[in-house]
Amino acid sequence: MKWQALPLVLVLCWSCKKDQSTPPPAAARPAPTPAQLETIRRDSIFAAASESIASATARRDSALFKTLADSMSALETMLRSSGNQESAAPILLKLGRLKEMASRWMTAGRSTGVDYAKAHSDEYGYFDPDGRYYYNGRQWRDLLTRFPQSSLADSARWYLAHMERGHGD
């Protein structure tokens, strides 16, 4: 008896499936309401504005980093001309501060500063988990090596002790 009911169940299932409605074609769908159109327009304006803000921020960051890089370059020129004189100590301290400040722009997802960090691999290390380059304190260590008795040596030690670190630092 069980097996005799099977054809009946199959016929019922087929007839129910046959009567199910199908969604209307795209051309037959109703047009968006004015409120829906306003939401779509507002969202697209917001998206365009946020893209504009992002590009303006990138341009500003690029200009700021260029100014910072120019300042570091000027200090490096002064450092080369000062040689091994005591006047190099404050230059090393300031240069280290600028190099550390520059590392804030050196995130792998952003182009600002990453090329600089790659070109100065003896001063910056890359930390993969957070995608950033970190200043390694090279100028401050140089100050401590060359001028251990300088009045600025304590400041260099403090900066080394309190700088942000990636792995291996």
Task: Provide structural commentary.
By secondary structure, the chain is mostly helical. The chain is built from six helices and two strands. It has a two-stranded antiparallel sheet. A hairpin with a 4-residue loop joins strand 1 and strand 2 (about 130-135). Helix 2 runs antiparallel to helix 3 and helix 3 packs antiparallel against helix 5 (about 140-145). The longest helix has about 50 residues, at about 35-80. The N and C termini lie far apart (about 80 Å). The relative contact order is 0.09. The model has no long low-confidence stretch (mean pLDDT about 75).
| SSE run | HHHHEEHH
The N- to C-terminal Cα distance equals 81 Å
Kindly provide the radius of gyration, computed on alpha-carbon positions and rounded to a whole number of angstroms: 33 Å
Count of DSSP E strands? 2
Helix/strand-derived category reads: mainly alpha
Which stretches are low in confidence, meaning pLDDT under 50 for 5 or more residues running?
A: none
Largest sheet: 2 strands, antiparallel
The outline comes out as: elongated
Estimate the strand proportion: under 5%
Across the major sheet, the strand order is 1-2
Helical fraction: 55-70%
Mean pLDDT: 77
Count of helices? 6
